[in-house]
Amino acid sequence: MIILIRKLKSKLDEYKKEVDASANLLSTYCLGEALIPDTPEILNLSADFSTSTLHLKWNDRGSVFPYHLNVIWEIKILRKENMEIVKLVTHNTTVNGKDTVHHWSWTSDMPLECATHSVGIRCYVDDPHFSGHTEWSDWSPLKNVSWSPDSQTKVFPQDKVILVGSDITFCCVTQEKVLSAQIGQTNCPLIHLDGENVAIKIHNISVSANSGTNVVFTTEDNIFGTVIFAG
Hints:
Layout: H1 2-29, E1 30-31, E2 34-35, E3 42-48, E4 53-59, E5 69-79, E6 84-95, E7 101-107, E8 117-126, E9 133-134, E10 143-145, E11 155-156, E12 160-162, E13 168-172, E14 178-183, E15 186-187, E16 191-192, E17 198-202, E18 213-219, E19 223-230
Parallel strand pairs: 2-9, 12-19
Antiparallel strand pairs: 1-2, 3-4, 4-7, 5-6, 5-8, 8-10, 11-13, 13-17, 14-15, 14-18, 16-17, 18-19
Pfam families: LIF-R_Ig-like, LIFR_D2
Organism: Leptonychotes weddellii (Weddell seal)
Protein name: Leukemia inhibitory factor receptor-like
């Protein structure tokens, strides 16, 4: 009988802790009748320029939540100085009483050297214990990555090998005004980026000769280029 009473008391204590934690959570996160998570913060944003891949890392601050919850993250990728949104995705996770660092990667269809890329995140907490209105958090402060140009390489990607029929984007990073661009003998329309930087997009690329296919950007005084191998 004494053992049973002790077990019941232990269960009541655990329940009281959960209720207290829930109350603390709601007092921290609720404004009126709305559950609004704190603004998330990105821990790190890094770039693998060789693969045009961004690597994102953030902490979910899960220790604030005393029980298992589903969390929806919205991740936005912006490009260029005018913050053009090029990707908006959702990423689902769970929290369960402890902080967890999450990782997410994204590969750009444009070489990362071509323009500044920025990332922001926000979250939505699905809390079945809360009967009020639930809202998205504010967007995190943006993190960005950009290329530090050198004096040698102007056109990206360099010496790329891809499959026939693929789509690929090339860009020229320069302070000179680009007058024209072509792949092989075909002229391509210019896509204007930041400053004098430009890009061209090739759809369904044809097979290359053994020596590759030249991609050339022409300015008033210079010619910049690379070679693409499609096979």
